[in-house]
Amino acid sequence: MMPRDDETIVALSTPPGRSALALIRLSGAQAMTIARALGVPPLAARRATRVRLRHPGSETLLDDAVATWFAAPRSFTGEEVVEFSTHGGTVVPAQVVAACVAAGARPADPGEFTWRAVRHGRLDLLQAEAIGDLIEARTVAAQQQALHALDGGLSRRLLALRDAVIALEALLAYDVDFPGEDDGPIAPARVAASADALANALRRLLATAPRGVVRRDGVLVVIAGPPNAGKSSLFNALLGESRAIVTPMPGTTRDAIEALLDRTPWPLRLVDTAGVREPADAIEQLGIEVSHRYLDQAMIVLACGATGEELARTMAAIAPQTTGRMIPLRTKCDVPSPSDPVTDGPTGLSSEDELRAASGPPLAVSAETGEGLHALLLAIDVAVEQMLHGDGVTSTADVVISRERHRTGVQRALEEVEAFRSVWGTMPSPIAASHLLTAREAISELIGTVETDEILGRVFSSFCIGK
Question: Is the peptide bond before 362 cis (omega within 30 degrees of 0)?
């Protein structure tokens, strides 16, 4: 998107179609002039005013609406902004937008209002991305994560990391440029300790990436097992509605069926797959191949079997196809199984400690009676927590990175700090410091800031120079 700040833009900011109200936004230096051309009287800032909108050429009445003026720079975009609340539907909003264009506005490009907000310093790049994530959020966890980023949580963390890089650069600059000052030379151990602390902080932030992705997209939970093992019934029971067809006939599920279960602490992407068996025809073969692809991506696999023997075969069949955590399920526990009486696992688990102690035996569940479903969801939660903290690195729960751009930028900064640490003491300081410059640039690119020379200013504020 090329800067065209001299133009005033207009767009419908609510979805088109039938609705009670619609919001139309004007932004730019001519916003009030264009509004006046539509018959809007002088407005007091931030005060909703009833207006009768007319076409600037024909004076045709367009709508009885409400207009609100936001004076620059105290607006979303940092520019002059006028918002019209009109009646909804298709015709009225379209006519008002057309009238604004006739009066001199330009139709806005996708995302241009938010882009102008970033350009004028009302938001940083991370906050702008958070707006997109908030709009796209399908779960409460994704909504809360986006709101925290929009509030500047991730931005503040990255700014603190950038400040730490600058502080480290300042130590080197002081040692090189002011070796004769009263404070004396900088101890190499002090520089090394600062670099180590910075690298650890970057690692902790980087470790939040899986958690951020799971909050945004959900935990991929694949239900796998032989035909007639109760997979589709379990799928429907967990969702609380009938999404998959359930019949006594084997092979009813020919394709993978996916649904999102919005819950706390983790939203679940449940997938019901075709039965694990030799395909009877080409169509069933395609369904099984799709199941294999889901198994390859799964974070959690619910291995199903109506009997202990069937469950053992299921786990042996799917183990080579997945790196996810398998949770064995003895399905149809409401149906007596005389031939397999001792393989039923714990069904009344109600705490995390009990679940952790219950390693080995399968969980017994029944989609028909609901028995064991609460224990199953708890087992999934515990497994997810264990997998996310498998590297032993814990992090602040609210500040996470959830986009690949964020992960790549933090990874690049970490690699540069580690490279600096590896050459510090063996190469001249100016050469080693080039890694810190690249690390600082990587973090700055994430936030979208335009840098000035901050390093020398930090040196003078941190040390008693020229006293």
Answer: no
Separation CA 423–CA 419 (nearest Å): 6
pLDDT in tens, 94-135: 999 999 999 999 998 888 888 888 888 898 888 888 888 888
Other Cβ atoms closer than 10 A to 108: 22
Sign of the Cα pseudo-torsion (321, 380, 218, 223, in order): positive
Reading the block at residue 355, the tokens are: 């679940």
End-to-end CA distance of the chain: 49
Q: Side chain identity at 467, as an amino acid letter?
A: K
Q: At what angle do helices 231-239 and 373-388 cross, to 10 degrees?
A: 90
d(CA 331, CA 231) in angstroms, rounded, equals: 8
Domains and their CATH numbers in the chain:
9-119 (3.30.1360.120), 153-208+398-462 (1.20.120.430), 217-388 (3.40.50.300)
φ, ψ (nearest 5 deg) of residue 292: -60, -40
Residue 22: phi and psi, rounded to 5, are: -135, 150
- For residue 321 the two structure tokens come to 């196809």
Cα–Cα distance between 164 and 431 in angstroms, integer?
A: 19
What whole-number distance in Å separates Cα of residue 453 and Cα of residue 444? 13
Q: What is the pLDDT of residues 365-408, one digit of tens each?
A: 888 888 889 999 999 999 998 888 754 444 445 688 888 888 99
Is the four-CA dihedral 111, 116, 118, 119 of positive or negative sign?
Answer: positive
Using CA atoms, how far apart are residues 442 and 416, in angstroms rounded to an integer?
9
